[in-house]
């Protein structure tokens, strides 16, 4: 079960805490030069994380983190409306969909989930192109430990780099058949649902025989329109699948 103290101890022990950063991998990330690497990327853990459902969003890198993490959490939890940047607007839409029926329609979803960064540094120089994949490869062990400490019931991977950090295989076909059957008795609809599941759902190994469902989505700020396409076509059936799958896992 999640413990804030254990998470803080982890950041301190690995020397990756905001304001006390001395990452043991920093010499390995020379591939990112000459971009300046701003560092420190502790998780945003909502003030109500775990009250409903433990959702962990795996994002990419981040801008320069403020030293006052409590202030950052307050700012994130207050985000709302049309002024959101594309990443947070997409994240808001997704978490709202996942928590539909559990929170009021006009309630901010941001207190109810945690968000980690797949990379603990950011090439924050104003450019929008991706930083070197070396950052994600070197930070992968940190991200996996964060996930273990946050003990999620659902993981959301935003973009291919985040999904590669998790490296999760497909969900067992028997589980997908059972979930699709719980949603509809129509065989054609079941096959349609399974095709969406094959594309967007994975199984992150938790322990032998157990897994945490992973929802793989395009990054909300992608410039090729993939997030809008996903939202308009795949989001509704994928949300139905996720909700039935988590019910099934809780019941088992």
From TrEMBL:
Record's protein name: Uracil-DNA glycosylase family protein
Biological source species: Endozoicomonas gorgoniicola
High-level lineage: Bacteria, Pseudomonadati, Pseudomonadota, Gammaproteobacteria, Oceanospirillales
């Amino acid at each position: 079960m999640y413990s804030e103290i254990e998470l803080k101890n982890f950041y301190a022990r690995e020397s990756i805490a905001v304001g006390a950063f001395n990452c043991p991998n920093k010499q390995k990330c020379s591939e990112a030069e000459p971009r300046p690497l701003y560092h420190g990327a502790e998780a945003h853990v909502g003030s109500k994380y775990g009250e409903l459902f433990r959702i962990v969003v795996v994002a990419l890198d981040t801008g320069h983190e403020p030293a006052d993490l409590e202030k950052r959490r307050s700012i994130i939890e207050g985000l709302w409306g049309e002024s959101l940047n594309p990443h947070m607007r997409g994240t808001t839409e997704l978490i709202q969909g996942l928590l539909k029926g559990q929170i009021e329609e006009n309630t901010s979803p941001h207190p109810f989930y945690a968000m980690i960064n797949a990379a603990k540094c950011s090439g924050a120089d104003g450019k929008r192109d991706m930083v070197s994949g070396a950052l994600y490869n070197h930070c992968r062990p940190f991200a996996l430990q964060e996930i273990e400490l946050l003990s999620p019931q659902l993981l959301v991977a935003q973009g291919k780099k985040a999904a590669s950090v998790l490296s999760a295989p497909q969900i067992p076909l028997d589980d997908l058949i059972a979930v699709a059957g719980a949603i509809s008795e129509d065989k054609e609809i079941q096959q349609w649902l399974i095709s969406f599941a094959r594309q967007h759902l994975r199984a992150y190994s938790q322990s032998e025989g157990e897994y945490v469902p992973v929802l793989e989505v395009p990054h909300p700020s992608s410039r090729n329109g993939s997030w809008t396409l996903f939202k308009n076509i795949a989001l509704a059936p994928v949300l139905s699948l996720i909700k039935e799958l988590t019910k099934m896992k809780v019941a088992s």
